[in-house]
Amino acid sequence: MALHDSIGSAVLNKEIQIDHTATMRKAIDKMAAEDAHALIVCQNNELVGILSCMDLMLGLVAGRDPDATQVAGLMTSCDIITSDPARNPCVQLDEDIDAARALEVMTEAGVRNLLVTGADDAIVGLVTARDLLKIAVS
To answer: What's the structural domain count of the chain?
Structure first.
């Protein structure tokens, strides 16, 4: 892999999703089991946000109960960008975009996780800064 490869090839954890009503503990367990740094948060099988390790860390530091706090209260809310207007657009890129451009977008947006979409704006998964850095040095 190289910086000019598509980010679709870097999506290692395809569609790692969690329901918006799941607890922090469930999210932490899922991230650990899947070696993921972020999760796609869904409500009725529709994307409503992205939950990162940092979101969970901030919740714990703030004294949130990991067995009672739902991820919906910690996630970054966002909508997938389609032809319809999005209230809170996600930072997302098409799976065909190359890794170099994805790193630029991440840097410009100040995020460490990008939503990756494919045909018909379907969610392919998430790509993390760590995934892209692996490509950069391979």
So the answer is: 1
H-only helix segments in 35-98? 53-61
Tell me, yes or no, whether 78 lies in a domain.
Answer: yes
pLDDT in tens, 68-113: 999 999 998 887 666 666 566 678 888 999 888 999 988 888 888 8
Q: Is residue 61 part of a domain?
A: yes
Q: Are 55 and 81 in contact (CB under 8 A)?
A: no
Q: Considering only CA atoms, which of 14, 17, 16 is closest in space to residue 95?
A: 14
- The predicted model scores a pTM of 0.83
Sheet holding 17-19, edge to edge: 17-19, 38-43, 46-52, 76-77
CA distance 113 to 12: 12
**Amino acid identity at 85:** P
Any idea what the CATH number is for the domain that residue 66 is in? 3.10.580.10
